[in-house]
Design goal:
- The structure is a single chain.
- The chain is built from 7 helices and 11 strands.
- The chain is 28% helix and 22% strand.
- The strands form 3 sheets. Strands 5-4-1-6-10-7-11 form a 7-stranded mixed sheet, sandwiched between helices. Strands 2-3 form a two-stranded antiparallel sheet.
- It folds into 2 domains: 179 residues, Spore Coat Polysaccharide Biosynthesis Protein SpsA, Chain A (Alpha-Beta Complex); 35 residues, no CATH class.
- The protein is α/β, with parallel strands linked by helices and 248 residues long.
- Strand 8 and strand 9 form a beta hairpin.
- It is globular.
Length: 248
């Protein structure tokens, strides 16, 4: 179900405390210092910072990192800094652990109502997309939302194959019954543009996989940067957008 809600942003949001958390660890196997890579002379962290500032809905913007270089860069952008302990600095740390650590660091303040989790590696995002989704989450009492893209049915999970003992096998046995694409349900993949979480819900469940997560389907071109090829594609998308990362 898709909701179309027209409410004044001040009425829905101003009573809620909303913080932005930006995860940006120093290590990266795909691209070295990935979060500091630049598009049009702005680091991915700076692009994300400007998105947060221009959104004008956040009570705090926090960056979580284990890197002195990243933390020093973020300080210049007026982030509140959370240095990750060593046990949260590896590449197998969950998003929940990062969020939980940040919330623990700010417990001296009143806990926020919502966290918006913004990965620097998804630099192309729209403020209107985020705000529309936050309003809907609040008004319809969702526990959060993920931004997602619809997957082409050519890449549906029930059509995926694996190689076992040098032979092809269906990854999911249920794929055997599929004889026409019309039999395939729509499926989606998260794109990293944003995650929204009710703080009460995420702390209670101790996972980002909450009940009642609204699927915020992305209607514009975006990219999640993991490789040099992805970074080059992002630069091309920005070039197509008149050399500007526009947030409108």
């Amino acid at each position: 179900m898709v909701y179309n809600i027209k409410y004044n942003i001040k009425q829905l949001i101003k009573k809620k405390k909303i913080i932005a958390i930006v995860p940006a660890r120093g290590g990266s196997k795909g691209i070295r210092n990935k979060n500091l890579k630049k598009i049009n002379n702005k680091s991915l962290i700076q692009i994300t910072s400007e998105f947060i500032d221009k959104s004008k809905i956040f009570d705090k913007k926090i960056i979580s990192s284990d890197s002195d270089r990243i933390l020093n860069h973020a300080k210049k952008l007026n982030f509140e800094l959370v240095r990750r302990p060593k046990n949260l600095s590896g590449d197998r740390i969950s998003d929940f652990q990062v969020i939980q650590n940040c919330l623990e660091q700010i417990r001296k303040d009143k806990l926020p109502d919502f966290v918006v989790y913004l990965q620097p590696t998804a630099p192309i995002r729209k403020i209107s997309h985020l705000i529309k989704t936050i309003k809907l989450v609040i008004k319809k009492n969702f526990n959060g939302s993920w931004s997602v893209n619809k997957i082409d049915k050519k890449f549906h999970p029930l059509k995926i194959l694996k190689i076992k003992d040098n032979c092809l096998n269906l990854y999911f046995k249920g794929g055997k019954r599929i004889i026409a694409r019309q039999m395939l349900d729509p499926v989606f993949i998260r794109n990293g543009i944003f995650y929204i979480f009710s703080v009460k819900s995420i702390l209670r469940k101790k996972t980002i996989y909450l009940d009642k997560i609204y699927p915020s389907i992305t209607s514009y071109k975006s990219i999640n940067i993991d490789t040099i090829e992805d970074l080059n594609k992002a630069k091309k998308l920005v070039k197509m957008n008149k050399n500007s990362v526009k947030f409108k």
